[in-house]
Amino acid sequence: MKLKTLKKIIYSFFKNLQETIYVIYDSKFKYKKKDRVLFLDLGANIGQAYNWFSKFFKGENIDFELFEPNPYCFQKLKELKEVRQGKVKIRNLGVGTKNKKVKFYGLNQKNKYSLGGSTLKEHNSLFYTNEQNEFIDVEVIDLGEYLLKKSKKYNKIIVKMDIEGSEVEILENLIQTNNIKLINVLYVEFHSQYRSAKQAEFIKIKELKIINSLKLINTLSTRIWH
Asked: Between the N and C ends of the chain, which has fewer C-beta atoms within 10 Å?
């Protein structure tokens, strides 16, 4: 086994271990049994993250809402047992800074369930270029507005955000409007590493600025995800 491959395996092992420890801690100590808790899974794909997080965050006081703009993935989410039983809500929507329709890139007939589908045309530009005519139209909602609405019903809000590059603009907006303080635990994956070299450098600076701003919010626990 090559040294580089071994290092990747070791890094992946400890990263997964760290994330598991975070989730165990958060699910035990970040809210009380009497609290009404909302878990928003933003970028649910076909339910992989939900299946994992729901093993830890469970109880009658916790509601899950899964957001997925990809219509093909949304059909798969309908097959989840908890969705069929009416215990989990799914929404065929993306999230943004405004309520509007946007273009969604990165899908084709061979890859309908792509983990890399994005509202950003430049996403995954390190690996391939999206053609202008290769998109579908999807709806996104104003996440800040949605959080304000839900905060009136729930004591705690937990967010898992894996939205393929759109997290930068949305988090900048949430920080600017102070709506970020409506979130108690944030699991977020950043994606600058999937952009072409010149773009990645610029986006990485933005990501670091966001992370530093999030660290200053003492009511928010931020977990940088894989």
From this structure: N
